[in-house]
Amino acid sequence: MKQEYRSSSPAVWYPHDTSEAWRLKEAFAADSQYIAGGTLLRTWWESGTAEPPRHLISLNSIPGLSGVTLHEHYLMIGSQTTLAGIRYNTAAARYAPLLVEACRVIAAPSVRNLATIGGNISSMVGDSLPALLALHADLLWFNGSQTEAVPLEAWLAEAETRSGSAALLTHIRIPLHGIRLKTAEEVVHEKRLYEGDDVLPVGYEVKRLSAYDKVGRREAFTPSVVTTAIMGDITEEGRLANVCVAAGGGQTPPSRLRAPESVLEGRLLSDAELLHALYEAVYTDFDPVGDAFAGREYRRLTAAGLLTAAVWKSAKGMAREEDSGCC
């Protein structure tokens, strides 16, 4: 473990593994903070929103906390993976496009090259959170002796009570709902059938309703006013199933919107009354925090419009597919 002192600056510690990092956080408690990219923390310190702690515990020297790996039933993302690293990762693009889109529109490219997904989550208002909620993500926390999986939704609900915890976020786990990866035997068999094909085929996928949207005060490089995400399956009959709707933005803690989910669940995507019912449900259920730039009412209307438009686009695309299939 190395320690670095700077005049009138926090002491910076460089633990070699998660156990050492956790012990440092336990020892220094509220006088310390984990840090990796530090992009948001520096913004808070420079604006006076927060005071720098006496000790910074750098996670940059700890192996195994970055990268994206594909498993049979889930996608695993290291907490120290940069937003740019997720944006350009092929497995993430294939199995978590909502998250990839969220990472694409967060801040500027130079920030995305440094900022980590773990830092965005730990802020509790990061623009990746609605996408991760819609993806039913779990957070993996090291508590000093073992790693515990906590659903993101549950963690957000209890985050204030855990503010003094030394637990270290190590990975984000995203289940592969509606997707079955090929077994080793199937891959070998198909490789023999399609010799020379560089891309090994994946199993089946259900049709999906999937959309992530962000509205800011300008087109790019801006804090969000509203962020929304929606994910659901579309059955062969054209009905919506397993729907998850989430929204946040600005200083509004992201959350799932249960009323819109209930409106959509089991309904035909082509139902003429669906869009109006969805708009009303989002407007009623979403309870954002207003500020000097965008009031509560504006944010509610914007969220309702974004999510309704997402469902309308999906319905339009499905109708187009059906029309082309009939010709």
From TrEMBL:
Species source reads Paenibacillus sambharensis
> PANTHER family recorded for this chain?
XANTHINE DEHYDROGENASE SUBUNIT C-RELATED
Q: Does the keyword Flavoprotein apply?
A: yes
The record's annotation in Gene3D superfamilies points to: 3.30.465.10, CO dehydrogenase flavoprotein, C-terminal domain
GO molecular function terms listed in the Swiss-Prot or TrEMBL record: FAD binding; oxidoreductase activity
Q: Which SUPFAM superfamilies match?
A: CO dehydrogenase flavoprotein C-terminal domain-like, FAD-binding/transporter-associated domain-like
Residue ranges annotated for the FAD-binding PCMH-type domain, each copy included: 5-179
Listed SMART domains: CO_deh_flav_C
What's the protein called, per UniProt? Molybdopterin dehydrogenase
What InterPro entries does the database record attribute to this sequence?
CO_DH_flav_C, CO_DH_flav_C_dom_sf, Diverse_Substr_Oxidored, FAD-bd_PCMH, FAD-bd_PCMH-like_sf, FAD-bd_PCMH_sub2, Mopterin_DH_FAD-bd
Keywords in UniProt for this one? Answer: FAD, Flavoprotein, Oxidoreductase
